[in-house]
Automatic annotation (TrEMBL):
Subunit structure of this chain's protein: Homodimer.
Gene name per UniProt: kynU
Function: Catalyzes the cleavage of L-kynurenine (L-Kyn) and L-3-hydroxykynurenine (L-3OHKyn) into anthranilic acid (AA) and 3-hydroxyanthranilic acid (3-OHAA), respectively.
UniProt keyword annotation of Secreted present: no
Protein family: Belongs to the kynureninase family.
Entry EC number(s): 3.7.1.3
InterPro entries: Kynureninase, PyrdxlP-dep_Trfase, PyrdxlP-dep_Trfase_major, PyrdxlP-dep_Trfase_small
Lineage: Bacteria, Bacillati, Actinomycetota, Actinomycetes, Kitasatosporales
Pathway as given in its UniProt record: Cofactor biosynthesis; NAD(+) biosynthesis; quinolinate from L-kynurenine: step 2/3; Amino-acid degradation; L-kynurenine degradation; L-alanine and anthranilate from L-kynurenine: step 1/1
Species of origin: Streptomyces cavernicola
Name of the protein described by the UniProt record: Kynureninase
Cofactor(s) in the UniProt record: pyridoxal 5'-phosphate
GO molecular function: kynureninase activity
Alphabetic keyword roster: Hydrolase, Pyridine nucleotide biosynthesis, Pyridoxal phosphate
Signal peptide: none
């Protein structure tokens, strides 16, 4: 009979070795050194790059240079030197590096929430006389709330797809929900909870067959999973830049309006920066041509500075290489979960098939809320999503396989101790 202690120790050694082998073979490993990690910091495993990406050392330097040279040096002249174009130029770089979108369709501005509101309202211009917005019950709260608000404001109904929180929304579910009264479909490409990766091309086709546009929320895709907005013939998209795009806390959102919809739709927040010839300051709102009319007020220039460095890195690394590592990282975390956790009542709430999974993995057990506090105290930092899920967010450019191993080993220790405590209490 196999001695369980020796056998589990061997598994432990094998898995530690595998982590080291995977790191040694990782073509992106050099990028980890580009990130800023505080000297004497307490984090032994950062597993939340899908909530807030780490900062780059180049960002710290660039911010300092920007303040000293461009802000202090150029002062108001900075706007005409180039800042006024940043929403579009940075948008075009995100589009090319991460979204599969040609130039002239993406801007950076606002928060995701505000951009979602503006583009959802604009999208409704395409389907006058239709009354239903299709969305799913497990979309991120802000998406659900913004659409509730729009429905109330415009006298529309919400048609909810009942999503299984452990899986995502399928093309079949969308096909069953859309029809001649569908005004708009709003879905996340990667589900924030389970990490399920929706079939963007198929769902967009299905909505179009019913005559409805789709607005994709790309928060958990951008910079992790290649998106092909132009190839899908997507209509609208929004996403944030503080996760896999390493823009920093509160970094602005991006918004995409397909070129073919730009003249036919108008977002509702008519500020001067979205007007034609903003500095003419004339009477009456006339939208700027193209995607610029998605802007409202002064662009968040300072908050875009970090994106210049992270886009340099993503452009060099390439989104396909990022995705290849992302798949291996999630596979490895699942391998660890199956080796150490599932026998202790931990449930994997993410798809097992790599092509149905984005960049994070969610593991559930009833005591995971308390256990997350303990993990954070020990320097292992995933996040917790109610009611019982720990999300292991794996940012390919900053995360090593050994980091995943170390973090999940601490989780396994706590899970075993927790399982023992609850068994003792029975
Ligand atoms: C899918 C999704 N949509 C929207 C948001 C957030 O919107 P905001 O950047 O406005 O907070 C998040 C995360 O915060 C998200 O995961
Ligand atoms: N946007 C966040 C924030 O302002 C504070 C804390 C977390 C976040 C997040 O990004 C949450 C994240 N979008 C999620 O998927 O849960």
């Amino acid at each position: 009979m196999t001695d369980p202690v020796t056998s589990s120790a061997r598994t432990q050694d094998d898995l530690a070795r595998r982590a080291q082998e995977l790191d040694a073979a990782d073509p992106l490993r050099a990028y980890r050194d580009h990130f800023l990690t505080p000297e004497g910091g307490d984090v032994i495993a950062y597993l939340d790059g899908n909530s807030l990406g780490r900062p780059l050392a180049a960002t710290a330097e660039r911010m300092e240079r920007f303040v000293a040279e461009e802000w202090a040096g150029r002062l108001i002249r900075g706007w005409t030197d180039g800042w006024l174009d940043w929403p579009q130029s940075v948008g075009d770089r995100i589009a090319a590096a991460a979204l599969g979108a040609a130039a002239g369709q993406t801007v950076v501005a606002d928060s995701t929430t505000v951009m979602l509101y503006k583009l959802a309202r604009a999208a409704l211009d395409l389907t006058p006389g239709r009354h239903e917005i299709v969305l799913d019950t497990d979309n991120f709260p802000t998406d659900r709330y913004v659409l509730e608000g729009i429905a109330a404001e415009r006298g529309l109904r919400l048609r909810w797809i009942e999503a299984d929180p452990a899986a995502g929304v399928t093309d079949e579910q969308v096909a069953a929900a859309v029809g001649p009264d569908t005004a708009l479909v709003v879905l996340s490409h990667v589900a924030y909870r389970s990490g399920h990766l929706a079939d963007g091309a198929a769902i967009t086709r299905t909505a179009h067959a019913a005559g409805a546009p789709v607005l994709w929320d790309l928060c958990h895709s951008a910079g992790s999973v290649p998106v092909r907005l132009d190839a899908w013939e997507a209509d609208f998209a929004v996403g944030c830049t503080y996760k896999y795009l390493n823009g920093g806390p509160g970094a602005p959102a991006f918004g995409y309006i397909a070129r073919r919809h730009q003249d036919a739709t108008q977002q509702p927040v008519w500020g001067w920066m979205g007007r034609k010839d903003a500095f003419e300051m004339e009477q009456g709102y006339v939208p700027a041509p193209g995607v610029r009319s998605a802007l409202s007020g002064t662009p968040p220039i300072l908050a875009m500075v970090p994106l210049l460095s992270s886009l340099d890195m993503l452009e060099e690394a390439g989104i396909e290489a990022v995705r290849a590592k992302s798949v291996q990282l999630t596979e490895f975390s699942l391998e660890l979960a199956h080796a150490w956790l599932t026998e202790h009542g931990v449930r994997v709430a993410s798809p097992l098939a790599a092509d149905e999974r984005g960049g994070h993995v969610t593991l559930c057990r009833a005591d995971f809320r308390e256990l997350t506090q303990e993990l954070w105290k020990r320097g292992v930092v995933p996040d917790f999503r109610a009611p019982d899920g720990i999300r292991i967010g794996l940012a390919p450019l900053s995360t090593s396989y050994d980091e995943v191993y170390r973090g999940m080993a601490v989780l396994a220790d706590l899970v075993r101790a927790g399982a023992k405590t609850s068994a003792d209490a029975r």
